[in-house]
Amino acid sequence: MTDAPGRLHARIAELATYNDDPAAGGITREIYTRTYAAALERVMAWMREAGLEPRLDAVGNLFGTWAGAEGDAPRVLTGSHVDTTLNAGAYDGVLGVLGAIEAVESLRTSGFAPRRTIEVIAWAGEEPRFGTGCVGSRAAAGELTRADLDRLVDRDGVSMASALRLAGFDPDRLADATIDPVSVHALIELHIEQAIVLETHGEPIGIVEAIAAPHDFRLTYEGAATHAGATPMALRHDALVGAAEAIVAIERLATGSPSGSTVGTVGVVRAWPGAINVVPGTVTLDVDVRDSDAHAREAIVDEIVATAHAIAAARRLTVTVDEIVVDTPVACDPTIIDASVAACEALDLSFRRMISGAYHDAMIMGRRIPVGMIFVPSRDGVSHHPDEYTSPDDLDRGVAVLAEALERLAR
Ligand code: HGY
Ligand code: MN
Ligand code: MN
Predict the structure, then answer these.
(1) pTM higher than 0.85 for the full model?
(2) Which fold has domain 7-212+329-410?
(3) CATH for 215-326, options being 1.10.443.10, 3.20.20.120, 3.30.70.360, 3.40.50.80
(4) Positions of the chain with pLDDT under 50
(5) Cα gap 159→165, rounded to integer Å
(6) How many Å lie between the centroid of ligand 1 and the Cα of residue 17?
(7) Which site from 79, 117, 230, 253 is most exposed, i.e. has the minimal number of CB atoms within 10 Å?
């Protein structure tokens, strides 16, 4: 296999120790925290060991550069993210960064000299600390405005701009992070599948054809906060019961979507005042609806919003809808898919063409440059959870395919 026996696995295990909440059982390493910065220092050191020249851009995207013979030819990007969501696993994103470093090491060892410059990237903030994911790649895609940095806030009300400053960056330098699409030939991202399709079909490699995208929004139900003991049931306007009805409706509508691939989730529920003896007067639901078919997704979002209003009317509540993010599903580039197929064939590995239900930085960059993704299996399809796991052999196969694909894209 490509890397020195076990080096990749040991590094993944080491990165897992950079954790702000070990007591919860999983890994929490959010962007712009001191723990994240310490983890990034280790990744920079590993980049240097691989002969990659590290640099941070204006929003903390980390680039490790392997200069090609034709320095001004459009370059090849690879990488993923090393920030995590809450109480997460050790492989989501991390494989795409550390595996890319391993792929570069093995290409160097094989004597390959790239014509095109290759850059390994650890994108900043792929996970939605600020409510919206992929803030680093959005900045690189020129999709974030300076006002967004003040508007995007985390669960404690800390804005992305404040978090950037605390981490030593200057939010007013945002525009410096923009990558000119003309300067990029291809972007290919190695990632764990985060679902159970590869394991179910016994395939070691997935080649992604399209990446589903989220339409996220917040529903705010307003009722009447009253005494939990003294208010008769018939006189209540309980915002949380209305919100509960909406949550069940979201599940029903997503499940019944004609596309068969729409998913709907309410992962964040907040109720005020949050006392056991007060009927909740205000409730917010953060809703995540995704599909690789944007038309089908929007039809379901429309039905969800209409149903949310009908529930409010029936219960004499009010409901407001605030958009969080509306992303566009992305088709992967045929040239990169072909390079990935050729890589699997060269390694005599079977593969499965598939859709990514999870979003990735490749989804953001894919709106402007050619992108592709390589998946390796997730045990039991578990991800965003402490039990997230991919075997060393599966990790190494993913790295080997990435190295072969990079060789084809950069020569
Ligand atoms: O939510 C996602 O799809 C990604 O894993 N952050
Ligand atoms: Mn994730
Ligand atoms: Mn990820």
Answers:
(1) yes
(2) Aminopeptidase (3.40.630)
(3) 3.30.70.360
(4) 1-3
(5) 10
(6) 21
(7) 230
